[in-house]
């Protein structure tokens, strides 16, 4: 299956809101439009009309990726991405993030997935990405691709293939701001991993010495 950019945005938004605002989910058409057009956590930014969102929902329903929710006076919609795409939960999370935020490194994906799913480490993210990249043809073929390293970048980024082949030249020219942000995220990810290791060591030593474990900061 191939999605249009609008369909990918609609599907990704439903996947995001199911995990980040479960009390407001499933979404009405208006709420879905607002989510698609929000200014944060979106790349590229879009300004979709309610009619465009409705058309995308209709198409996604025929592909069994979105379904209507019953039990409300207002028609609401929910995604069926994991089953429709035939992927495990972790892979669906990564695809949703790539649809909403564009190409990202494994470190960026791990940080951006915090409210969706807590991956144990960057290696875990890379493992699921590699499974999506090596997906056999009998299951529909690859769903992601690892892009060539951009000039000045330290890590390669991943992109989804749900909208077809990726124009690498377009993303390679995204600018220094994206590269700087990516480097910062990578540093944060490494620091978080180091802090977790240090905390585990401190807890182990306290247990061996019979001391109380120091409280952690919220």
Automatic annotation (TrEMBL):
HAMAP family: UPF0502. It comes from Rhodoferax fermentans. This is Uncharacterized protein. Belongs to the UPF0502 family. SUPFAM superfamilies: Winged helix' DNA-binding domain. InterPro entries: DUF480, WH-like_DNA-bd_sf, WH_DNA-bd_sf. Gene3D superfamilies: Winged helix-like DNA-binding domain superfamily/Winged helix DNA-binding domain. It holds the Pfam family DUF480.
């Amino acid at each position: 299956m191939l999605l249009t950019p609008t369909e990918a945005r609609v599907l990704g938004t439903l996947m995001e809101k199911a995990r980040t605002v479960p009390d407001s989910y499933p979404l009405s058409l208006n709420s879905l439009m607002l989510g698609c057009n929000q200014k944060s956590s979106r790349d590229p930014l879009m300004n979709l009309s309610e009619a465009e969102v409705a058309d995308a929902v209709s198409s996604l329903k025929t592909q069994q990726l979105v379904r209507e929710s019953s039990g409300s006076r207002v028609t609401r919609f929910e995604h069926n991405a994991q089953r429709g795409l035939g992927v495990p939960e972790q892979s669906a999370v990564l695809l949703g993030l790539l649809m909403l935020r564009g190409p990202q490194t494994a470190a960026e994906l791990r940080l951006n997935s915090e409210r969706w799913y807590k991956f144990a480490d960057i290696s875990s993210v890379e493992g699921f990405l590699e499974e999506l990249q090596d997906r056999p043809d009998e299951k529909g073929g690859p769903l992601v691709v690892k892009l060539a390293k951009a000039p000045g970048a330290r890590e390669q980024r991943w992109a989804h293939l749900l909208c077809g082949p990726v124009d690498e030249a377009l993303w390679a020219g995204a600018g220094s701001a994206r590269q700087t942000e990516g480097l910062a995220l990578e540093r944060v990810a490494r620091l978080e991993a180091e802090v977790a290791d240090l905390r585990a060591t401190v807890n182990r030593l306290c247990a061996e010495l019979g001391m109380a474990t120091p409280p952690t900061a919220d």
